[in-house]
From TrEMBL:
It comes from the Bacteria. GO terms for molecular function: transferase activity. GO terms for cellular component: cytoplasm. This is Phosphocarrier protein HPr. It comes from Desulfocurvibacter africanus PCS.
């Protein structure tokens, strides 16, 4: 399993999963909106990390600031009661190209 626990500077425990943007056009508006919409279904705090930049995965505008292109490696980070479910659900979106075809 490719999940591991990390501790942020606030000492919050995060469950993390590395994912790759496989959509041909990258993480553009449509998949970013879908990601934010799906992330909002969970009570956990969910972040998306690219390099040193961490953004709120429940905010489409924050996600778009990552400018994640095809092939870009990202990390989904979640902390809370439903963190494991959130990480798995969001990772599935990346694997299925956000069902864009």
């Amino acid at each position: 399993m490719d999940t591991q626990t990390n501790v942020s500077e606030t000492q919050r425990q995060y469950l993390t999963r590395r994912v790759c943007v496989v959509n041909e056009l990258g993480l553009h508006a449509r998949p970013a909106a879908r990601l934010a919409q799906e992330a909002q279904k969970f009570s956990s705090r969910i972040l998306l990390k690219a390099g040193a930049q961490e953004v709120d995965a429940k905010s489409i505008l924050d996600i778009l600031t990552l400018a994640a292109r095809n092939g870009c490696g990202l990390e989904i980070m979640a902390s809370g009661d439903d963190a494991a479910q959130a990480v798995e659900h969001l990772a599935r979106l990346f694997r299925t190209k956000f069902q864009e075809g």
